[in-house]
Write a structure and sequence with these properties.
Layout (H helix, E strand, L loop, with lengths): L15 H36 L5 H23 L6 H28 L2 H8 L2 H12 L6 H20 L8 H26 L4 H15 L4 H10 L2 H28 L2 H7 L2 H14 L5 H17 L2 E6 L5 E7 L1
Antiparallel strand pairs: 1-2
Helix pairs in contact: 1-10, 1-12, 2-3, 2-8, 2-9, 2-10, 3-7, 3-8, 4-6, 4-7, 5-7, 5-11, 6-13, 8-10, 12-13
Length: 328
């Protein structure tokens, strides 16, 4: 009986491996950028505490944005400036004025009459607003992890706020200003996401927005000159820090994450900020948090982890992708 030749099975290259590796690398970069953003934004609370008593809210915002605009100009030149299409220019200016001028003014003014905990509770309504409105207007839907995790994180912010509340009483004007800051936060996040998905370069957008916000703050230039003459050097250095790190660097990494994630997930990530701010206040200012503040911080972290859960696709033998479990 003649031997039947046996042909070896041809080697089929695993085409999914490079894609998986690329996705993991991209996910790591997004995670690092998100961590940089929340840590630097948390440190801004320390900076505002150090500079706020010596600067008018408008003067503080102007100096911070002037320094930030210079730093962002350097970043934009190194990255390569790619101007948006003319049809986007007006919206870019409106976004910049809202995010870098009105938001800063509202928050700085609110914290002059509200304690930090109450201000944080009100401002952190913004991520919940983003979750709802991005699902409705940006067609991001309402993923269950986001709908579950965001309220958990907000509950943590409420616990932190309730336990840091002072006995100064509730100021209605300050409350309304904090609410205005929350609305500007949510609205500007949605506008920025729209601009990024329309092809506007993230670094150039941040740079142009910072310039627009700085120009809008110029009416406070006279007050800034006066405050600089009386403010101690360490307070001025705190504002310089705010301009370079929580503004220029953090808003650049924020844009990077927002361009590659949904608006709802990105904004919900900022619920980590109060938890990190508690630890920084403990280490730098010696402000020991209460047990309930620790619990609130843990809820913030838990809620953010839940919002980052997503289904992991599995690849079957025939190459078909199927949902399999959940991953972070």
């Amino acid at each position: 009986m003649p031997d039947v030749p046996i042909h070896p099975t041809p080697h089929v290259p695993d085409v999914t491996a490079p894609k998986v590796a690329a996705q993991r690398s991209r996910g790591s970069l997004i995670l690092i950028a998100a961590l940089v953003t929340v840590v630097l934004w948390a440190s801004a609370f320390i900076g505002i505490r150090g500079a706020g008593p010596h600067f008018d809210p408008g003067a503080l915002a102007l100096l911070r944005m002037a320094v930030g605009a210079v730093a962002l100009s350097i970043l934009a030149l190194r990255h390569g400036i790619r101007l948006p299409a003319r049809r986007h220019w007006l919206l870019v200016v409106v976004w910049g004025v809202g995010w870098f001028c009105i938001y800063n003014l509202a928050l700085n003014s609110a914290e002059r009459t509200l304690d930090a905990g109450t201000a944080a509770m009100v401002v952190n309504l913004a991520p919940l607003m983003v979750v709802v409105f991005s699902g409705l207007f940006l067609r991001e839907g309402f993923p269950k992890p986001l709908l579950i995790g965001a309220p958990i994180a907000f509950l943590g912010v409420v616990l932190i706020g309730m336990n840091s509340h002072t006995s100064a009483g509730l100021d209605i004007t300050g409350l309304l200003l904090a609410l205005l800051a929350a609305v500007m936060y949510a609205g500007c996040t949605l506008v920025q996401k729209h601009l990024l998905t329309s092809g506007v370069d993230a670094t150039t957008l941040t740079w142009l927005g910072a310039i627009a916000g700085t120009v809008a703050l110029l009416p406070w230039a006279g007050r800034l000159v006066a405050d600089l003459q009386t403010a101690p050097l360490d307070a001025t250095l705190w504002v310089v820090y705010l301009g370079i790190f929580p503004t220029a660097i953090a808003f650049t990494t924020w844009a990077y994450v927002l361009q590659r994630s949904t608006a709802g997930q990105t904004s919900a990530t900022t619920y980590v900020v109060p938890a990190i701010a508690i630890l920084m206040s403990w280490m730098i200012l010696g402000e020991v948090p209460t047990l309930m503040m620790f619990i609130g911080g843990a809820l913030c972290l838990l809620g953010v982890l839940v919002t980052r859960m997503r289904r992991r696709p599995a690849v079957s033998d025939d190459g078909e992708h199927r949902a399999r479990g959940l991953r972070w």
